[in-house]
UniProtKB/TrEMBL annotation:
<dbReference type="InterPro" id="IPR006685">
    <property type="entry name" value="MscS_channel_2nd"/>
</dbReference>
<keyword id="KW-0813">Transport</keyword>
<dbReference type="Pfam" id="PF00924">
    <property type="entry name" value="MS_channel_2nd"/>
</dbReference>
<feature type="domain" description="Mechanosensitive ion channel MscS">
    <location>
        <begin position="299"/>
        <end position="366"/>
    </location>
</feature>
<feature type="transmembrane region" description="Helical">
    <location>
        <begin position="125"/>
        <end position="147"/>
    </location>
</feature>
<keyword id="KW-0812">Transmembrane</keyword>
<comment type="similarity">
    <text>Belongs to the MscS (TC 1.A.23) family.</text>
</comment>
<dbReference type="GO" id="GO:0034220">
    <property type="term" value="P:monoatomic ion transmembrane transport"/>
</dbReference>
<keyword id="KW-0406">Ion transport</keyword>
<dbReference type="GO" id="GO:0016020">
    <property type="term" value="C:membrane"/>
</dbReference>
<dbReference type="InterPro" id="IPR023408">
    <property type="entry name" value="MscS_beta-dom_sf"/>
</dbReference>
<dbReference type="InterPro" id="IPR011014">
    <property type="entry name" value="MscS_channel_TM-2"/>
</dbReference>
<keyword id="KW-1133">Transmembrane helix</keyword>
<keyword id="KW-0407">Ion channel</keyword>
<keyword id="KW-0472">Membrane</keyword>
<protein>
    <submittedName>
        <fullName>Mechanosensitive ion channel protein 1, mitochondrial isoform X2</fullName>
    </submittedName>
</protein>
<dbReference type="InterPro" id="IPR010920">
    <property type="entry name" value="LSM_dom_sf"/>
</dbReference>
């Protein structure tokens, strides 16, 4: 214990420690520590001799026990006061450090100004260029991390409650609004930085009066680029939704094309306004000349408008088999002015879109079923068996898996009686299938109908032979 006392005594204080204790904030911290009961008990126990250690130690222990019992009700308030004092001490230390840094900066400023005045190129070129390059580098390194942090915080909000398959649910950073913002902002800052450097390095070559105008144009292009990227991300997320129907998918693709053209035109007009071009005057003159142009190009405009109407209303899509007037085939491509079809003979046909606005369009691919109505002429001696033949044919149609029974029941009836033959009319709805399977089903139904007629003693007849 004496060794501890001698180690902590005044004789061991060095000049460095004396400088530390001269600090006001540290003196305040030490005063807090010295006023605590734990520090007083330890200091007292280390100051006594070895003979009085046991007695003093017991007294301190007893005093501590009594103190704990007496101050159990107010211990919390004492600790709150100590925390406040420690917080004030920390504030004083930070304030002291800031004052010292300010004093050091004030002392260094004349020397820095002297160096910059002695080297004008360093003051006018190197330091501004270096600062601009450092800021640009920070934009390339720090800004993506900040945007990723913002994306992480936004995904922890209400979007975290949405399912992953939702358009507005959990999305990766690359497909989010923050990911769409990264490249436009980064390249905008880079362009502004290097244009500023060009003005500083070669002021006689690059006109500084056009710098602000150039920055405005770059900001507009970056904003349009951001909107295009964000729009593409949203539509791409919507296209991967499994519950999206084919018609909605085609409408989204059409909306993507139209919005891209609209953003391009809007960005071009805004950029022209920033550059000093009177867009309103151009539109006025263009409106006057557009009347004459509309008469000359009314067919083209009609095809364009019809193409937009077809792509928005989606009466057919790529891959469908359609019939419009005398034109029939499979849709291969849908353009803005024309639509390409492929006929049954595999001949390509280019159809103007204006045709679809004046013709009835039959979309065979979207039919859920196809009707089959046919007649079977036959000869039979016993007319009483015709009713049984009709019932057997209807039962055969009902048992066929290719027959669609939900909308209309199959039918078979005697539709004609001539001198040498009778005629059965049978009909049903067949499920939609490819041409090969459809023709195979029709063939199977006709063969089974002929087999039923033969089983009842009848035979097929020629209606043209009387």
């Amino acid at each position: 214990m004496r060794g501890i006392h001698s180690a902590c005594g005044p004789s061991q204080v060095t000049p460095y420690s004396r400088g530390l204790f001269d600090n006001k904030s540290l003196r305040g911290s030490i005063s807090i520590v010295r006023t605590s009961p734990v520090w007083n008990s330890r200091w007292y126990s280390s100051s006594v001799n070895s003979k009085g250690d046991i007695l003093k130690g017991s007294e301190v222990s007893a005093g501590a026990t009594g103190s704990d019992m007496d101050t159990s009700g107010v211990g919390g308030s004492e600790w709150i006061g100590k925390v406040k004092e420690a917080w004030q001490t920390t504030i004083d230390a930070v304030t002291y450090t800031g004052e010292k840094a300010k004093e050091a900066s004030s002392e260094m400023t004349p020397y820095v100004e002297q160096v910059l005045d002695a080297h004008p190129y360093l003051r006018d070129v190197i330091v501004p260029v270096g600062g601009t390059l450092i800021g640009t580098l920070m934009a390339w390194i720090v800004m993506p991390r900040l945007l990723r942090r913002f994306h992480k915080y936004s995904m922890q909000g209400p979007a975290a409650l949405l399912p992953g398959s939702s358009i507005w649910g959990q999305v990766p950073y690359e497909k989010s609004i923050w990911g769409a913002m990264e490249d436009p902002v980064r390249y905008l800052i880079t362009f502004m930085a290097f244009s500023q450097i060009a003005v500083m390095v070669a002021p006689s070559t690059v006109a500084s009066q056009y710098l602000l105008q150039t920055w405005r144009g770059a900001a507009i292009l970056s904003f349009v680029w951001f909107l295009q990227r964000w729009k593409t991300n949203v539509i791409s997320r919507a296209l991967v939704v499994k519950s999206l129907e084919k018609g909605d998918r085609d409408r989204l693709l059409t909306l993507d094309r139209i919005s891209s053209v609209g953003l391009f035109i809007l960005g071009l007009m805004t950029l022209a306004e920033v550059c000093g071009v009177a867009v309103q005057s151009i539109l006025t003159v263009g409106g006057i000349g557009g009347v004459a142009t509309a008469f000359a190009a009314r067919d083209i405009l009609g095809n364009v408008l019809s193409g937009l109407s077809v792509q928005l209303s989606q009466p057919f899509s790529v891959g469908d088999t359609i019939k419009a007037g005398s034109v029939e085939g499979q849709v291969v491509e849908m353009g803005l002015t024309t639509t390409s079809l492929l006929t049954a003979e595999k001949f390509p046909v280019i159809v103007p879109n204006s045709l679809f606005s004046s013709q009835v369009i039959v979309n065979k691919s979207r039919a859920q079923w196809r009707a089959l109505v046919t007649t079977v002429p036959f000869q039979i001696e016993e007319f009483d068996k015709i009713l049984q033949i009709s019932d057997d044919v209807k039962n055969m149609l009902r048992s066929n898996p290719s027959v669609f029974l939900e909308k209309e029941a199959p039918y078979c009836y005697l539709s004609k009686i001539e001198k040498t033959y009778a005629e059965l009319t049978l009909g049903c709805n067949l499920r939609y299938a490819s041409k090969d399977k459809l023709f195979s089903t029709q063939q199977d139904i006709l063969l089974q109908a002929a087999r039923i007629i033969k089983q009842h003693g009848g035979k097929l007849a020629d209606p043209w032979t009387q």
